[in-house]
Amino acid sequence: MNTLYKEMLSSDVVILTMGLIEGWYDNKFDCYLNKAPSNTLIRADEPRFSFHRFRLDDVVEGMSRGIEVSLEFGVKNIVLTVSGPIGSDIYERGIGACK
Predict the structure, then answer these.
(1) Cα–Cα distance between 45 and 69 in angstroms, integer?
(2) CA 47 to chain centre
(3) Of the candidates 58, 18, 20, which has an alpha carbon nearest to the alpha carbon of residue 36?
(4) What residues does 81 pair with on adjacent strands?
(5) How far apart are CA 99 and CA 83, in angstroms?
(6) What proportions of the chain, in percent to the nearest 5, are helix, strand and coil?
(7) Which listed residue, of 11, 21, 49, 80, carries a Cα 20 to 30 Å from 43's Cα?
(8) Cβ–Cβ under 8 Å, residues 61 and 21
(9) Distances in Å between the alpha carbon of 50 and those of 23, 28, 62, 79?
(10) CA–CA separation, 69 vs 33, rounded Å?
(11) Distance of CA 49 to CAs 4, 8, 34, Å?
């Protein structure tokens, strides 16, 4: 398991956030990034990074797996959050579930 997430498994609470359906992958370290790499970094080593747009079934599978792994390691509290669209007026226009 990636050392970045080892301490998470001894936590009392895990927060999983459903947000964007896009992500940057670091092919060198074989993991998804928490934010987009800088243009400078991409230009310096273009094959290292790849952009992925996830399908709905990929998102559902990933979230399900995150919950399963958390439960397997004894996490008792899982908080599932949803982030809204960035820079969007979707709720102001009455399209969202919250009016």
Answers:
(1) 33
(2) 22
(3) 20
(4) 17
(5) 16
(6) 35, 25, 40
(7) 21
(8) no
(9) 9, 11, 18, 29
(10) 19
(11) 19, 25, 13
- Each residue's pLDDT expressed in tens, for the chain with a length of 99 residues: 566 667 776 788 888 888 778 889 999 999 989 889 999 999 999 999 999 999 989 989 989 998 998 899 888 899 998 876 655 554 454 444 443
Secondary structure class of 58 (helix, strand, coil): helix
Domain ranges of the chain: 3-82
64 membership: H or E segment, kind and range: helix 56-72
Using CA atoms, how far residue 5 sits from 16, 18, 32, 49, in Å, is 13, 18, 12, 21
Six token digits for residue 22: 């896009």
